[in-house]
Amino acid sequence: MTADNPLSDRLDDDDYPAYTMGRAAAMLGTTPAFLRALGEARLITPLRSEGGHRRYSRYQLRIAARARELVDRGTPIDAACRIVILEDQLEEAQRLNAEYRRRAGHEAPNGSVSGAVPGSG
User: Fold this and answer.
1) Dihedral angle at the C-alpha atoms of 87, 92, 98, 100, nearest 10 degrees?
2) What whole-number percentage of the chain has pLDDT above 70?
3) How many CA atoms, within 13 angstroms, populate the side-chain half-sphere of residue 80?
4) Contacting residues for 97 by C-beta, under 8 A, at least 6 apart
5) Mean pLDDT of 87-94
6) What pLDDT is attached to residue 29?
7) Candidate from 3-7, 46-50, 56-60, 110-114 with smallest mean pLDDT
8) pLDDT, tens digit, for every residue of 108-117?
9) CA-CA distance, 117 to 112, in Å (whole number)?
10) Parallel/antiparallel/unpaired status of strands 19-20 and 47-48
11) In angstroms, what CA-CA distances link 47 with 7, 38, 44, 53?
12) What is the pTM of this model?
C-alpha cells in the first residue's frame, strides 16, 4: 500500500474495478456470458487486469443489475442496454440541470450575486 493510493480510497471508489467476472456474475445472480453480452452491446466496458481478466466496478454492477431486471421482464438484451444508457443519460442531464438551476438561483437578474448589499462591493 502506498500513501498515494490508500486502500480506503479504493474501497470507497464506485469506479474502482474490484470484482472479477465470476464474482460479479455471482453477485448479480447471472452468468459470465450475460456480462460478456453487456460488454458486446457496449453497455459496460470492464477494465482488464494485468493478466487480461475482466474487472468490474460497483457502478458497472449497478448498470448490469438494471439491465438484468429488464431482461428478466422479457426485454431483449440490446433494447435493455439502450434503455439503461438512456436512463443514465437522463439522470446525468437532470443532475446538471439541477446544478445550473442552483447556480442561477444565487444570481440576481442583473448578474450580481443575490443577497449582496448594493454598494458594498
Assistant:
1) -140
2) 79
3) 20
4) none
5) 96
6) 96
7) 110-114
8) 555 555 554 4
9) 10
10) unpaired
11) 18, 14, 10, 8
12) 0.72
DSSP per-residue string spanning 21-49: HHHHHHHHTS-HHHHHHHHHTTS---EE-
Task: With H, G, I as helix, E, B as strand and everything else as coil, classify residue 32.
Answer: helix
> How big is the CA angle at 21 (ends 20 and 25), to the nearest 5 degrees?
120
Q: Rounded distance, CA 66 to CA 94, Å?
A: 19
CB 38 within 8 A of CB 81: yes
| The length of the chain, given as a count of residues | 121
Alpha helices of 46-76 — where are they, by DSSP H? 58-72
Could you tell me the three cell numbers for 53? 481478466
Q: Distance between CA atoms of 13 and 104, rounded to whole angstroms?
A: 30
Burial status of residue 32 (CB atoms within 10 A of its CB: 0-12, 13-18, 19 or more)? middle
What is the reported pLDDT for 6? Answer: 63
- pLDDT of amino acid 9: 66
